[in-house]
Amino acid sequence: MEEEKKLTPRERLKIPPQPMPEQDPKERIGNVDEVPYGYDEELARTEAMRCLQCKNAPCIAACPVEIDIPAFIKFIVDGKYREAINKIKETNILPAVCGRVCPQEEQCQRTCIVGKSRKSIDEAVQIGKLERFAADWEMKQGEAEVPDVKPPTGKRVAIVGSGPAGLTVAADVRREGHEVTMFEALHKPGGVLIYGIPEFRLPKRIVMREVENLERMGVKLERNKVIGKLYTIDELLEDEGYDAVFVGTGAGLPLFMRIPGENLNGVYSANEYLTRANLMQAYSFPETDTPIALVKNVAVFGGGNVAMDSARTALRLGAENVYLVYRRSRIEMPARIEEVHHAEEEGVQLCLLQNPTRIIGDKNGWVNAVECIKMELGEPDASGRRRPVPIKDSEFTIDVDACIVAIGNASNPLVPDTTPDLETNRWGNIIADDETMKTNKRGVFAGGDIVLGAATVILAMGQGRTAAAAINEYLKTDEW
Amino acid sequence: MIGMSKILEKEFITPEVFRMKIDAPDIARKRKAGQFIILRTCDEGERIPLTIADADADEGWLELVVQVVGKTTKFFSRLEVGDSICDLVGPLGRPTHIERYGNVVVIGGGIGIAPSHPIAGAMKAAGNKVISILGGRTKDLVIMEDKMKAASDQIVITTDDGSYGMKGLVTDALQKLIDNGVNVDLVVAIGPPIMMKFVSLLTKKYEIPTLVSLNTIMVDGTGMCGACRVTVGGETKFVCVDGPEFDGHKVDFDEMMMRQRMYVEQEKESMERHCPHNH
Ligand SMILES: Cc1cc2nc3c(=O)[nH]c(=O)nc-3n(C[C@H](O)[C@H](O)[C@H](O)COP(=O)(O)OP(=O)(O)OC[C@H]3O[C@@H](n4cnc5c(N)ncnc54)[C@H](O)[C@@H]3O)c2cc1C
Ligand code: FES
Question: Which pTM value belongs to this model?
Answer without folding.
Answer: 0.93
